[in-house]
Design goal:
single chain, alpha+beta, eight-stranded mixed β-sheet
Length: 435
């Protein structure tokens, strides 16, 4: 461990030493064990990648995970939060409880990676048949946590406490009308019996392989789904004055939203992104339709600001519609709250994540990011830390495909690092105990 980390731990501001001294598991041993399971981790990752499943449909993946955890001698609960799996590994000595989480679901994306194990799978989303692919790296998440579970089960008798493994469905959300994701797992008791004292999670993202980063407090944005329906009066395209033109109104609404976020909010204090991403209006070139439907996303880092943005944009859209003689229905539905990293955990994690990745490869004060993660719900219940792992093959910041892209692909050389990070955060947390 580096001097900065040692000083932080010695200060006693993070997690106090256990009353019963323990012999620490060495980082060298963890690295050796991670290499020992890597062939299986790669095989799991490729199998899951080739057989992706959408949110709340991850039954094959869940069965693979549950069978593995049972084979390791864990207590296993299934169908938590629809298809989620929870495994409990009780150590040979008393101590605290720590949780590790991975998400299992894929996306309705047509893969274009050219990999020999690329997905050709399809699924059903909102009544339609869609292509399905692990375009966000969740296949790697599952495989890495399965590898970590194997290592940790192998040192069961040495562990001073309990580890809870949470394999979560539907992180990417569910179709309208379905419940799922982290909040549903919590409602089904994923954080009870036993209740963890803290939870850790990681996400592979576009970035330099081997780099690990996070920040204290607000790390990933709160996310809201936005739905806007404008209703006017249909007319011939040659006679716009005889109807109520929702196409022109739509253009004004989008420009108002873009101007509002760019000109009324200081991005250096509270980053805010408001994007209209879909537009459905009209069926023919010479008919102005009676309805326009838009959907989008709002990303914020402050609760009061989020509420203010919602109130002001809703009022602005309704006023615009009234000026045209139209009506507007505007709704905001939060998909995930702010990912808030516990300050003490964020400082403490410099130690185990530095051991896992090397001190030169970690950054515990990274900038916030406007992407969202429903891991945030766990942090509303218990102290939580979420961190990112760079994993882009031949990384180039200008050309690297982002998460959710058809070309997104995980560099498999980072899989042992993810395994080490899981193992060391869990083991070091148990070794120190909690205050």
């Amino acid at each position: 461990m580096g001097a900065a980390c040692a000083a932080m731990l010695a200060s006693g501001t993070a997690y106090a030493q256990s009353a019963v001294p323990v012999d620490p598991v060495s980082a060298e041993e963890v690295a050796r064990l991670a290499e020992g399971v890597n062939d299986r981790v790669v095989a799991w990752r490729r199998d899951i990648h080739q057989n992706p499943e959408l949110g709340n449909q991850e039954r094959r993946t869940a069965a693979l995970v549950a069978d593995h955890l049972r084979a390791l001698g864990m207590e296993v609960r299934t169908e938590i939060g629809v298809t989620g799996v929870v495994g409990v590994l009780r150590g040979g000595r008393p101590g605290p409880v720590v949780a590790l989480r991975a998400d299992m679901d894929a996306l309705p994306v047509l893969e274009d990676t050219g990999l020999p194990f690329a997905s050709t799978a399809t699924g059903t989303y909102q009544g339609q048949t869609v292509p399905v692919a692990h375009a966000c790296g969740h296949d790697a998440h599952v495989a890495m946590l399965m590898g970590a579970a194997e290592i940790l089960a192998g040192m069961r008798e040495r562990l001073p406490g309990t580890i809870v493994f949470i394999f979560q469905p539907a992180e990417e959300g569910t179709p309208p009308g379905e419940d799922g994701g982290a909040d549903e797992m919590i409602a089904d008791g994923a954080l009870e019996n036993p209740r963890p004292d803290a939870i850790f999670g990681l996400h592979v993202v576009t970035g330099q392989p081997g780099q690990v980063w996070w920040r204290a407090q607000g790390f990933m944005a709160a996310s809201d789904r936005v739905d806007i329906t404008l209703r006017g009066r249909q007319t011939h395209g040659a006679w716009p004055w005889r109807g109520v033109d929702v196409i022109s109104l739509t253009a004004d609404v989008i420009q108002t939203i873009n101007t509002f976020t760019a000109r009324t909010i200081d991005p250096t204090t509270t980053p805010t992104v408001f994007t209209i991403a879909t537009l459905d209006a009209g069926v023919r070139n010479n008919i102005i339709p009676d309805q326009s439907v838009m959907t989008g996303t709002l990303r914020t880092f402050d609760v009061d600001q989020r509420n203010d943005v919602i109130a002001r944009t809703t009022s602005a859209i309704e006023n615009l519609a009234e000026n045209y003689g139209a009506t507007a229905t505007v709704s905001f539905l939060q998909n995930a709250p702010l990912v808030f990293n516990d300050e003490e955990l964020a400082a403490w994690a410099v130690g185990p994540l530095g051991e896992a990745a090397g001190e030169a490869n970690i950054n515990g004060a990274a900038p916030p990011t406007t992407v969202a993660e429903d891991f945030a719900y766990y942090g509303q219940v218990i102290p939580a830390l979420f961190y990112h792992l760079g994993g882009t093959p031949d990384y180039d910041s200008e050309t690297a495909p982002p998460n959710h892209s058809p070309q997104f692909h995980v560099d498999e050389s980072v899989l042992p690092l993810g395994v080490r990070a899981h193992v060391l955060t869990a083991v070091r947390f148990l070794e120190r105990g909690v205050s």
